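hey so i finaly got around to running the thing on Signal peptidase I from Ottowia pentelensis. pasting the sequence first so u can double check i didnt mess up the copy paste, my clipboard has been acting weird all day
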Amino acid sequence: MPILTAIVLAAFVGYGAAWYTGSIEGNFALLLFLATVVTGLYWLADRFIFLPRRRAAAQALTEQRARRRAELAAQGITKVDDENLDTARERLLAQPWWLDWTAGLFPVILIVFLLRSFVVEPFKIPSGSMIPTLLIGDLILVNKFTYGLRLPVVNTQVTQGNPIQRGDVVVFRYPPKPSVDYIKRVIGLPGDEVSYLNKRLTINGKEVPQTAVSDFFDESTMEYFKQFNEQLGDVHHNIIVDTRRAAFIGNPDQFQYRDQCRYSIEGVTCKVPEGHYFMMGDNRDNSLDSRYWGFVPNGNIVGKAFFVWMNFGNLGRIGPFK
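ok and heres what it spat out for the 3d tokens, dont ask me to read them lol
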């Protein structure tokens, strides 16, 4: 078992190293699932096989010491220079290194797996596509049960939750590359007709209310941008617009249901298919979103983002957002 365990641990370390160096494309959900299964098997083996053996060995040592002392006492010898019995028992009952690094870690790994899979999952904002709502470096929490529980790794929905609403900030698997997680705002629901023409948003023929507010200074680019307060359903949020950029959507991908979108020099109009969503970033001119790569299937939804729990460069960022 020590040799087998060393091979298993080396495989995990090798996978992590290859992922870190970019040699392979890692999947943390799969890695955590496998770690939970492997350590769980070791935990079960320890509980029902190895621990009873260690306890039997400790009990045998206790009985052996008792018989030896009884024999010596019968010979009139009362002082015995033996190793402390409690210390010897502790050594026999202790997990060997190969169980300490597997079965011993199982409870912690299991808790992390359950919390991350079914309660909340942490993410880090890597880009400025959601400025001004979310800034680069924000560490956020994503609710994993609001839209219904999903099985880890395969992401299959198993319970009904609240329906996704326009204006929700959602983490999802990037359709062209599902191993990558994206975060955007829900603009269009299944059946909606979404138009973004001349940098104004229209849903089902009605222009989305928009009010100009003070310009936004983006510290990541050291530039000022026009800022507006937009209302999607009951959600009020701010967006920024780069007036120097054209409204034209350049080089959109050839995605599924591409025929549901009409591109022009003014922008794009799309009819959202059933079971799909249209996503956009709040940084409207600096966001690679549904305008470029298409619709997000319901099966790609990960959860609803709702809280910034840390930004090491700006502690004032901590708190909920919409």
